[in-house]
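We modelled the chain as a single entity of 605 amino acids. Its sequence is:
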Amino acid sequence: MTVERLRGAIDAAEGRVPADTLFVNARIVDVYGHRVAPGRVAVRDGVIVGVCYDGRDDDVSYEADRVVDLEGRYLAPGLIDGHLHIESSNVRPAEYARMALARGTTTAVADSHEICNVCGLDGLSFMMADARRAPLDIKFMMPSCVPALPDEQAGASITAADMEAFIAERPGEVFGLGEMMNMPGVTGADPETCARIAAAAGTVTGLTDGHAPLVSGRDLNAYTVAGIIADHECTEVDEALDKLSRGMYIMLREGTCSHDLAQLAPLVLEDPARARRCCFATDDRAPSDALAQGMIDNACRMAVEAGIDPVTAVSMATLSTAECFGLDHGPACPRERRGAVAPGKRADLLVLDDLSFAEPPAAVYAAGALVAEHGRFVGEIAPADDEVARLADELRGSVHLPGLSLDVFSYPFRPGEAVIDVIPGNAVTGVAHPESADGLRRIALIERHGRGVAAQKAGADGDGPAGLGLVGRHIGRGWVRGYTIEGGAIASTIGHDSHNVCVVGDNPEDMLVAVGNVHQGGHVLVRDGEVVARVDLPLGGLMSEGDAEEVAREHERFVAEARAMGIEPPLDPIMGVIFLPLPVIPTLRIRPEGMFDVTTFTYAG
């Protein structure tokens, strides 16, 4: 912060110069004092310069260019999403910003490893450039695991040296190191993994985020010794307490695929003091859910419904996350400090009719500017400039599939073989060994970054059917239980985290049609040989060119068609498929080489 700006803020706080905005008749949600108290709040240059509580500061007055009478409404800090992947909302950052701000999220800590697994650091450059068009403050982390595991068949690889070079070229732009998913790399003290963690020192915060599902004992000790600050993968209270007691922040995740908040709420209910080290994250949130139910505001609502005190819930969504990432205090400019309604903090503010979070905020202010009212974005998104357009072009044309025949999807079930057991509402899967194929569906994963194409050109299929020579090398096949699609198939160019094409169906014919219709990116639903729903995702095969509302409508149509084909709630038809290839969450996953046991890091028979 310059001396001149510091003097201006002090002058405004002392009343020597007028504020830009003065909020009066507010019920201030005081996350430091853990209370709600009536008062007034003055804002200048996007920063809170004065907070006055009735009964204590009655003799303090501020002049302002604009006075906003809240008429007894609540004034709370802007919400902070502790961990998410914007790409998983299937919209570009500027569109995500519109959606998030409308629901009260004013800061998002984003890990763009999805697009980076497809396009490398060009993908991160696009995300940063597009985000600058919008008033949402997105803090971009450097993806730490591209690919998710060293031998994954992703579209790119980012080394520690690549990270250091990118960070050095963009001083002050990379916020920290994204979720460290390579557990064997950490626990084995792998030199490259340790070098990636060390690269975090060059970022704004110097911090490394975590990803440690079901990790305990020595492995958890090693993980925290590495300085990893948080985990969003807990599904049980005992697991969360293990990590909390070792100094990690716990992110209670409530997204579209993973619904962990209700299960973890007792962690805070048993002892509310733990809330100071607990915050919220969406991780992955579909636009249809975000617009209809909310984002971090949805997590607040669910927390209150679970019995957590509303002020505690707000504190978890604001101050706890700010403290986790060092955003609540320190030498940073006041426009960077946030997480509370307090002097010297960024004026990210929510006007709420009540603290139930049943409805979107009545008003949302980002750095003092009004950006949303009653769930509707009213701020400004700058047009895409030449740089954004050029970077977007780099993301197109990313799908390179080999030739495929029906034989690829026509394979028998072997009694007792390992089968993915889907757990609806949970990113974790189980493993089953059924004796028959009753209730099972086929699943296949097809490499889409050009390796299969090259192998076919080199003669991998010989004189056999197209694609059959790639099975076990670039095409994985198996079975899944709990994904109850009937009379069709679903395919997607999203398959975490390497984003190869994942397809699930109850017959080979529809699986072939579904894969054949993903084109240059998207989700495809096929019934009886016909495409009945699709969401086009041309940007890296992950993101749409349309607006959030358009994508939400397409997603809703897709879900409705999928429900008619037997996929019942709480299983999300799209999210329920695209996480099945993720090889860093237990237990059984599919990879291009076959079925993979994450607990043993071996291929299952």
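As a brief sanity check on the tokenised model: The CA atoms of residues 158 and 348 lie 34 Å apart. The chain has 19 helices and 28 strands.
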